[in-house]
Amino acid sequence: MSKLFDLTGKTAVIVGGSSTLGLEMAVGLAEHGARIALLGRSKDKLDKAVTKMNDVTDEVKAFIADVIDESSLKKVCDEIVAWADGFDIIVNTAGKNSATPFFDLETAEWDDIMDVNLKGVFLSSKVFAKRMVEMKRPGSIINISSVSSTTPLSKVVTYSASKAGVNNLTQFLAREFAPYQIRVNAIIPGFFPAVQNRKILSEERINSIMEHTPMNRFGDPKELKGAVVYLASDKASSYVTGSLLRVDGGFGAMTI
């Protein structure tokens, strides 16, 4: 059974690889044998991420890239191919959030969040999947969505709208890339106290989340490892594409 999840010989590109969730998923992939390319904008954060990854693997390298800059992604794509002779797994984890009230929301902030959360997935998928097709290299693209993508959460209108777009784009790309044996899926995490959402977790909001979460707790980033390894494996999830996999403690199953 363990061979179903063996990623030995695979290279995984983690876009937003220095983030809390992105780094933990990178660790999970490395623990199952994958070579890891971490992408991010901050050299300092990436260096710290590589140091943590070195506890698991020495087959890891950091690459500076801006997810909303297509030329930057193309440059890094070439660098990763030179380093690892290609790649098999793309995990799009880069994200931004904001609790700005709707009537106070400026166009610039809307555009900024939409650019990172949605345009970033579009550009990353375009650049990396195109190279996979050119190299005749099948693989897996895994996008990180949110519980707010299916039922918008209060106070995070732009984030919710952007993640709904990620779901739609995921399913479109699953159909588009299927002829090339590239599977495209999304993980819908519940509430994981990452940097981008800690700032809006007031005591009142935490209580509301817990009342709506059957497991009555936040998720631990380590609990995303299983989902990402499953979707990355061309053995365990070979017939899975266009799916939206919830890892949310039951949040999405609740109504009243």
Describe this structure in words.
This protein is of the alpha/beta class and 256 residues long. The chain has 8 helices and 7 strands; from the N terminus they run βαβαβαβαβαβαααβ. The protein has a single domain (2-246), classed as NAD(P)-binding Rossmann-like Domain (Rossmann fold, 3-Layer(aba) Sandwich). The chain has helices spanning 20-31, 43-53, 70-84, 107-134, 157-177, 195-198, 203-211, 225-232; strands at residues 11-15, 35-40, 60-64, 89-92, 139-144, 182-189, 244-247. A 7-stranded parallel beta sheet has the order 3-2-1-4-5-6-7, with helices on both faces. Strand 5, helix 5 (157-177) and strand 6 form a beta-alpha-beta unit. Helix 1 (20-31) crosses helix 8, helix 3 packs parallel to helix 4 (107-134) and helix 4 runs parallel beside helix 5. 43% of the residues are buried. The model has no long low-confidence stretch (mean pLDDT 94).
Itemize the secondary structure elements and their pairings.
Layout: E1 11-15, H1 20-31, E2 35-40, H2 43-53, E3 60-64, H3 70-84, E4 89-92, H4 107-134, E5 139-144, H5 157-177, E6 182-189, H6 195-198, H7 203-211, H8 225-232, E7 244-247
Parallel strand pairs: 1-2, 1-4, 2-3, 4-5, 5-6, 6-7
Helix pairs in contact: 1-8, 3-4, 4-5
Quick synopsis:
With 256 residues, this protein is of the alpha/beta class.
CATH class: Alpha Beta
Roughly how much helix do the residues carry, as a percent range?
Answer: 40-55%
Order of helices and strands: EHEHEHEHEHEHHHE
Shape: globular
Count structural domains: 1
* CATH topology name: Rossmann fold
Tell me the radius of gyration.
17 Å
Strands, count = 7
Which structural class best describes the helix and strand composition? alpha/beta
What's the number of helices?
8
Q: Supply the CATH architecture.
A: 3-Layer(aba) Sandwich
Indicate the mean pLDDT. 94
Report strand order across the widest sheet.
3-2-1-4-5-6-7
Q: What separation lies between the terminal Cα atoms? A: 39 Å
For the largest beta-sheet, the strand count, sense and barrel status come to:
7 strands, parallel
> Which regions contain 5 or more consecutive residues with pLDDT less than 50?
none
Family: Belongs to the short-chain dehydrogenases/reductases (SDR) family.
InterPro entries: NAD(P)-bd_dom_sf, Sc_DH/Rdtase_CS, SDR_fam
Organism: Chengkuizengella axinellae
Protein name: SDR family oxidoreductase
